[in-house]
Design brief:
The structure holds two protein chains of two kinds. Chain A is mainly alpha-helical. Helices cover 65% and strands 0% of the residues of chain A. Chain B has nine helices and no strands. Chains A and B meet through α1 and α5 of A and α2, α3 and α9 of B.
Chain lengths: 126, 206
Protein backbone atom coordinates (compact mmCIF):
# COMPACT_ATOMS: atom_id res chain seq x y z
CA UNK A 1 0.00 0.00 0.00
CA UNK A 2 1.61 3.27 -0.98
CA UNK A 3 1.04 6.65 0.62
CA UNK A 4 -0.26 8.24 -2.52
CA UNK A 5 -3.14 10.65 -2.02
CA UNK A 6 -4.94 12.78 -4.59
CA UNK A 7 -4.11 16.47 -4.59
CA UNK A 8 -5.87 19.46 -6.10
CA UNK A 9 -2.36 20.76 -6.81
CA UNK A 10 -2.07 18.28 -9.70
CA UNK A 11 -5.32 19.48 -11.20
CA UNK A 12 -4.02 23.05 -10.89
CA UNK A 13 -0.87 22.01 -12.79
CA UNK A 14 -2.94 20.48 -15.58
CA UNK A 15 -5.04 23.65 -15.72
CA UNK A 16 -2.04 25.74 -16.75
CA UNK A 17 -2.94 25.19 -20.39
CA UNK A 18 -6.51 26.48 -19.96
CA UNK A 19 -6.57 30.15 -20.96
CA UNK A 20 -9.81 30.93 -19.10
CA UNK A 21 -8.38 29.85 -15.76
CA UNK A 22 -5.83 31.71 -13.66
CA UNK A 23 -3.36 28.80 -13.43
CA UNK A 24 -1.22 29.75 -16.45
CA UNK A 25 -0.90 33.42 -15.54
CA UNK A 26 0.00 32.56 -11.94
CA UNK A 27 2.75 30.11 -12.83
CA UNK A 28 4.30 32.61 -15.23
CA UNK A 29 4.22 35.30 -12.55
CA UNK A 30 5.78 32.97 -9.99
CA UNK A 31 8.51 31.97 -12.41
CA UNK A 32 9.34 35.49 -13.49
CA UNK A 33 9.34 36.81 -9.92
CA UNK A 34 11.23 33.75 -8.65
CA UNK A 35 8.60 33.12 -5.96
CA UNK A 36 7.72 29.82 -4.36
CA UNK A 37 4.24 28.96 -3.07
CA UNK A 38 4.94 30.17 0.44
CA UNK A 39 6.15 33.54 -0.82
CA UNK A 40 3.22 33.96 -3.18
CA UNK A 41 0.79 33.03 -0.41
CA UNK A 42 2.48 35.52 1.92
CA UNK A 43 2.07 38.22 -0.73
CA UNK A 44 -1.64 37.46 -0.97
CA UNK A 45 -1.97 36.93 2.79
CA UNK A 46 -3.55 33.53 2.34
CA UNK A 47 -2.64 29.91 3.05
CA UNK A 48 -0.31 28.19 0.52
CA UNK A 49 -2.95 25.47 0.11
CA UNK A 50 -5.35 28.11 -1.25
CA UNK A 51 -3.13 28.66 -4.31
CA UNK A 52 -4.43 25.55 -6.08
CA UNK A 53 -7.99 26.82 -5.62
CA UNK A 54 -6.93 30.22 -6.92
CA UNK A 55 -5.36 28.60 -10.00
CA UNK A 56 -8.69 26.92 -10.77
CA UNK A 57 -10.67 30.16 -10.66
CA UNK A 58 -11.81 31.82 -13.86
CA UNK A 59 -9.99 34.96 -14.88
CA UNK A 60 -11.95 37.97 -13.65
CA UNK A 61 -14.04 39.66 -16.31
CA UNK A 62 -12.92 43.13 -17.41
CA UNK A 63 -14.31 46.33 -15.85
CA UNK A 64 -17.02 46.96 -14.73
CA UNK A 65 -17.10 43.35 -13.45
CA UNK A 66 -13.46 43.14 -12.44
CA UNK A 67 -13.86 44.25 -8.85
CA UNK A 68 -16.90 42.04 -8.24
CA UNK A 69 -15.06 39.00 -9.59
CA UNK A 70 -11.85 39.65 -7.68
CA UNK A 71 -13.84 40.14 -4.48
CA UNK A 72 -15.53 36.81 -5.02
CA UNK A 73 -12.18 35.07 -5.57
CA UNK A 74 -10.54 36.82 -2.59
CA UNK A 75 -13.38 35.73 -0.31
CA UNK A 76 -13.15 32.17 -1.62
CA UNK A 77 -9.43 31.79 -0.97
CA UNK A 78 -9.35 34.10 2.09
CA UNK A 79 -6.84 36.48 0.49
CA UNK A 80 -6.30 40.22 0.61
CA UNK A 81 -8.48 41.88 -2.03
CA UNK A 82 -6.10 44.63 -3.15
CA UNK A 83 -3.08 42.33 -3.23
CA UNK A 84 -5.02 39.81 -5.27
CA UNK A 85 -6.24 42.43 -7.74
CA UNK A 86 -2.72 43.73 -8.26
CA UNK A 87 -1.30 40.26 -8.63
CA UNK A 88 -3.89 39.24 -11.22
CA UNK A 89 -3.28 42.34 -13.30
CA UNK A 90 0.50 41.96 -13.02
CA UNK A 91 0.29 38.28 -13.94
CA UNK A 92 -1.94 38.97 -16.93
CA UNK A 93 0.30 41.81 -18.10
CA UNK A 94 3.37 39.61 -17.97
CA UNK A 95 1.52 36.90 -19.79
CA UNK A 96 0.39 39.30 -22.51
CA UNK A 97 3.92 40.63 -22.95
CA UNK A 98 5.28 37.12 -23.29
CA UNK A 99 2.75 36.24 -26.02
CA UNK A 100 3.32 36.56 -29.72
CA UNK A 101 2.73 40.00 -31.25
CA UNK A 102 -0.90 40.70 -32.05
CA UNK A 103 -2.45 38.38 -29.47
CA UNK A 104 -3.07 41.17 -26.93
CA UNK A 105 -1.57 44.59 -27.44
CA UNK A 106 0.17 46.22 -24.45
CA UNK A 107 -1.78 49.43 -25.18
CA UNK A 108 -5.06 47.58 -24.85
CA UNK A 109 -3.86 45.98 -21.67
CA UNK A 110 -2.78 49.32 -20.23
CA UNK A 111 -6.22 50.74 -21.03
CA UNK A 112 -7.81 47.76 -19.27
CA UNK A 113 -5.51 48.24 -16.24
CA UNK A 114 -6.57 51.86 -16.04
CA UNK A 115 -10.29 51.07 -16.20
CA UNK A 116 -9.99 48.30 -13.63
CA UNK A 117 -8.02 50.34 -11.12
CA UNK A 118 -10.38 53.24 -11.62
CA UNK A 119 -13.11 50.78 -10.73
CA UNK A 120 -11.25 49.81 -7.56
CA UNK A 121 -10.59 53.41 -6.55
CA UNK A 122 -14.18 54.43 -7.21
CA UNK A 123 -15.38 51.42 -5.24
CA UNK A 124 -13.14 52.31 -2.28
CA UNK A 125 -14.47 55.84 -2.16
CA UNK A 126 -18.09 54.76 -2.33
CA UNK B 1 -29.67 8.73 -11.89
CA UNK B 2 -30.10 12.42 -12.64
CA UNK B 3 -27.93 15.23 -11.34
CA UNK B 4 -28.28 15.95 -7.64
CA UNK B 5 -29.54 19.39 -6.63
CA UNK B 6 -26.02 20.45 -5.69
CA UNK B 7 -24.57 19.20 -8.99
CA UNK B 8 -27.34 20.94 -10.91
CA UNK B 9 -26.61 24.20 -9.14
CA UNK B 10 -22.87 23.96 -9.91
CA UNK B 11 -23.62 22.99 -13.49
CA UNK B 12 -25.80 26.06 -14.01
CA UNK B 13 -23.14 28.33 -12.49
CA UNK B 14 -20.41 26.83 -14.67
CA UNK B 15 -22.60 27.09 -17.78
CA UNK B 16 -23.41 30.74 -17.06
CA UNK B 17 -19.69 31.70 -16.96
CA UNK B 18 -20.43 34.54 -14.58
CA UNK B 19 -19.09 33.12 -11.34
CA UNK B 20 -15.27 33.00 -11.25
CA UNK B 21 -15.15 30.48 -8.40
CA UNK B 22 -17.81 28.03 -9.61
CA UNK B 23 -15.44 25.59 -11.30
CA UNK B 24 -12.81 25.78 -8.55
CA UNK B 25 -15.40 25.12 -5.83
CA UNK B 26 -16.89 22.26 -7.84
CA UNK B 27 -13.47 20.68 -8.43
CA UNK B 28 -12.57 21.10 -4.77
CA UNK B 29 -15.77 19.35 -3.75
CA UNK B 30 -15.55 16.43 -6.18
CA UNK B 31 -11.90 15.86 -7.06
CA UNK B 32 -10.93 13.35 -4.36
CA UNK B 33 -14.09 11.28 -4.67
CA UNK B 34 -13.73 11.19 -8.47
CA UNK B 35 -10.17 9.92 -8.13
CA UNK B 36 -11.43 7.22 -5.75
CA UNK B 37 -14.25 6.28 -8.16
CA UNK B 38 -11.86 5.88 -11.09
CA UNK B 39 -9.31 4.05 -8.96
CA UNK B 40 -12.00 1.53 -7.96
CA UNK B 41 -12.91 0.98 -11.61
CA UNK B 42 -9.30 0.76 -12.75
CA UNK B 43 -8.19 -1.75 -10.13
CA UNK B 44 -5.55 -1.69 -7.40
CA UNK B 45 -2.58 -2.03 -9.77
CA UNK B 46 -3.46 0.99 -11.88
CA UNK B 47 -0.94 3.84 -11.96
CA UNK B 48 -2.36 6.48 -9.57
CA UNK B 49 -0.62 9.25 -11.49
CA UNK B 50 -2.40 8.28 -14.71
CA UNK B 51 -5.68 8.11 -12.83
CA UNK B 52 -5.25 11.62 -11.48
CA UNK B 53 -4.32 12.94 -14.90
CA UNK B 54 -7.40 11.33 -16.40
CA UNK B 55 -9.65 12.79 -13.70
CA UNK B 56 -8.01 16.17 -14.17
CA UNK B 57 -8.51 16.10 -17.93
CA UNK B 58 -12.15 15.01 -17.55
CA UNK B 59 -12.83 17.89 -15.17
CA UNK B 60 -11.06 20.41 -17.38
CA UNK B 61 -12.83 19.15 -20.50
CA UNK B 62 -16.11 19.56 -18.67
CA UNK B 63 -15.04 23.09 -17.72
CA UNK B 64 -14.34 23.84 -21.39
CA UNK B 65 -17.59 22.35 -22.71
CA UNK B 66 -20.16 22.01 -19.91
CA UNK B 67 -23.01 21.99 -22.43
CA UNK B 68 -22.07 18.43 -23.42
CA UNK B 69 -23.36 17.17 -20.09
CA UNK B 70 -27.10 16.52 -19.86
CA UNK B 71 -28.26 16.70 -16.21
CA UNK B 72 -31.42 14.75 -17.07
CA UNK B 73 -29.46 11.68 -18.15
CA UNK B 74 -26.95 11.05 -15.39
CA UNK B 75 -25.38 12.47 -12.28
CA UNK B 76 -22.46 14.77 -12.94
CA UNK B 77 -20.20 12.66 -10.78
CA UNK B 78 -20.86 9.48 -12.75
CA UNK B 79 -20.60 11.37 -16.07
CA UNK B 80 -17.15 12.64 -15.07
CA UNK B 81 -16.04 9.30 -13.61
CA UNK B 82 -16.98 7.57 -16.87
CA UNK B 83 -15.13 10.17 -18.95
CA UNK B 84 -12.08 9.92 -16.70
CA UNK B 85 -12.07 6.14 -16.77
CA UNK B 86 -12.25 6.20 -20.58
CA UNK B 87 -9.31 8.66 -20.66
CA UNK B 88 -7.42 6.45 -18.25
CA UNK B 89 -7.96 3.39 -20.44
CA UNK B 90 -6.80 5.29 -23.53
CA UNK B 91 -3.72 6.60 -21.72
CA UNK B 92 -2.84 3.12 -20.46
CA UNK B 93 -3.26 1.61 -23.91
CA UNK B 94 -1.09 4.36 -25.40
CA UNK B 95 1.58 3.79 -22.77
CA UNK B 96 1.67 0.09 -23.57
CA UNK B 97 1.95 0.84 -27.28
CA UNK B 98 4.78 3.30 -26.69
CA UNK B 99 6.71 1.05 -24.30
CA UNK B 100 6.24 -1.84 -26.73
CA UNK B 101 8.11 -0.06 -29.49
CA UNK B 102 10.31 2.11 -27.31
CA UNK B 103 13.94 2.26 -28.41
CA UNK B 104 16.59 4.02 -26.43
CA UNK B 105 18.20 6.66 -28.61
CA UNK B 106 21.37 6.08 -26.61
CA UNK B 107 21.45 2.44 -27.53
CA UNK B 108 24.70 1.91 -29.55
CA UNK B 109 22.87 -0.41 -31.92
CA UNK B 110 20.47 2.38 -32.75
CA UNK B 111 23.13 5.05 -33.11
CA UNK B 112 25.47 2.98 -35.24
CA UNK B 113 22.79 1.84 -37.60
CA UNK B 114 24.27 2.40 -41.08
CA UNK B 115 21.92 0.59 -43.39
CA UNK B 116 19.75 3.17 -45.10
CA UNK B 117 17.02 2.49 -47.58
CA UNK B 118 16.30 5.83 -49.24
CA UNK B 119 17.03 9.52 -49.21
CA UNK B 120 14.15 10.26 -46.87
CA UNK B 121 15.64 7.96 -44.27
CA UNK B 122 19.04 9.60 -44.67
CA UNK B 123 17.52 13.05 -44.18
CA UNK B 124 15.53 11.87 -41.23
CA UNK B 125 18.61 10.29 -39.67
CA UNK B 126 20.66 13.43 -40.25
CA UNK B 127 17.99 15.55 -38.62
CA UNK B 128 17.81 13.16 -35.72
CA UNK B 129 21.59 13.16 -35.44
CA UNK B 130 21.51 16.94 -35.44
CA UNK B 131 18.83 16.86 -32.76
CA UNK B 132 20.90 14.61 -30.52
CA UNK B 133 24.01 16.70 -31.03
CA UNK B 134 22.01 19.68 -29.90
CA UNK B 135 20.61 17.74 -26.92
CA UNK B 136 24.17 16.76 -25.97
CA UNK B 137 25.14 20.45 -26.02
CA UNK B 138 22.12 21.67 -24.08
CA UNK B 139 22.11 18.79 -21.59
CA UNK B 140 25.72 17.90 -20.74
CA UNK B 141 24.55 15.91 -17.70
CA UNK B 142 23.95 12.23 -18.64
CA UNK B 143 21.06 11.92 -16.15
CA UNK B 144 19.32 14.90 -17.70
CA UNK B 145 19.84 13.38 -21.15
CA UNK B 146 18.22 10.17 -19.96
CA UNK B 147 15.24 12.20 -18.73
CA UNK B 148 15.12 13.93 -22.13
CA UNK B 149 14.94 10.50 -23.76
CA UNK B 150 12.06 9.47 -21.53
CA UNK B 151 10.21 12.72 -22.29
CA UNK B 152 10.75 12.37 -26.03
CA UNK B 153 9.62 8.76 -25.88
CA UNK B 154 6.45 10.03 -24.18
CA UNK B 155 6.97 7.84 -21.13
CA UNK B 156 4.22 8.78 -18.69
CA UNK B 157 4.77 6.28 -15.90
CA UNK B 158 6.78 7.89 -13.08
CA UNK B 159 8.85 4.79 -12.32
CA UNK B 160 11.49 5.13 -15.09
CA UNK B 161 11.98 8.77 -14.07
CA UNK B 162 12.30 7.82 -10.41
CA UNK B 163 14.89 5.15 -11.26
CA UNK B 164 16.92 7.52 -13.44
CA UNK B 165 16.86 10.23 -10.79
CA UNK B 166 17.55 7.83 -7.92
CA UNK B 167 14.33 8.79 -6.17
CA UNK B 168 12.87 5.34 -5.56
CA UNK B 169 13.43 5.56 -1.79
CA UNK B 170 11.40 8.75 -1.38
CA UNK B 171 7.76 8.58 -0.23
CA UNK B 172 5.44 8.46 -3.22
CA UNK B 173 4.15 12.02 -3.01
CA UNK B 174 7.62 13.52 -2.65
CA UNK B 175 8.89 11.34 -5.50
CA UNK B 176 6.09 12.52 -7.80
CA UNK B 177 6.61 16.14 -6.84
CA UNK B 178 10.35 15.92 -7.54
CA UNK B 179 9.78 14.12 -10.88
CA UNK B 180 7.29 16.79 -11.94
CA UNK B 181 9.73 19.53 -10.98
CA UNK B 182 12.56 17.96 -13.00
CA UNK B 183 10.30 17.20 -15.99
CA UNK B 184 8.94 20.72 -15.94
CA UNK B 185 12.43 22.26 -15.87
CA UNK B 186 13.77 19.99 -18.63
CA UNK B 187 10.69 20.35 -20.83
CA UNK B 188 10.97 24.10 -20.54
CA UNK B 189 14.62 23.98 -21.58
CA UNK B 190 13.75 21.60 -24.44
CA UNK B 191 11.05 23.95 -25.69
CA UNK B 192 13.29 26.98 -25.45
CA UNK B 193 16.51 25.57 -26.81
CA UNK B 194 15.69 22.85 -29.30
CA UNK B 195 12.11 23.37 -30.46
CA UNK B 196 13.32 24.10 -34.00
CA UNK B 197 15.10 20.75 -34.41
CA UNK B 198 12.07 18.94 -32.97
CA UNK B 199 9.79 20.69 -35.47
CA UNK B 200 12.00 19.55 -38.34
CA UNK B 201 11.77 15.88 -37.43
CA UNK B 202 8.07 16.16 -36.59
CA UNK B 203 8.60 15.72 -32.87
CA UNK B 204 6.72 17.57 -30.18
CA UNK B 205 7.39 18.24 -26.53
CA UNK B 206 4.08 17.82 -24.71
Amino acid sequence: MNRYSPSLERLAQLAQGRPNLLAGALILYKEQEGLDDEQLAALLRCEPAALSRLALCERPRPAPRFREDVERIATYIHADLMQLAMLIRAAESREALSKKPGETSPALLAARDYEEFEEFNTGDEG
Amino acid sequence: MKATAEEYDFHQRILARDDPIAFAAFAELLYNSLVQDVRRRAGPRADPMLIEEAVGEALLDYHDSPMRYDPKRSSLRSYLAMAAHRDFQNATAKEHRVSGRQVSLFDPAFREQDIVGNQETVDSQMQEEELWQRIDEVFPDPIERRIVTLILNKTRSPEPYAQTLGLCDLPYNERIREIRRVKYRITKRLRRRIAQQLDRIGGKVQ
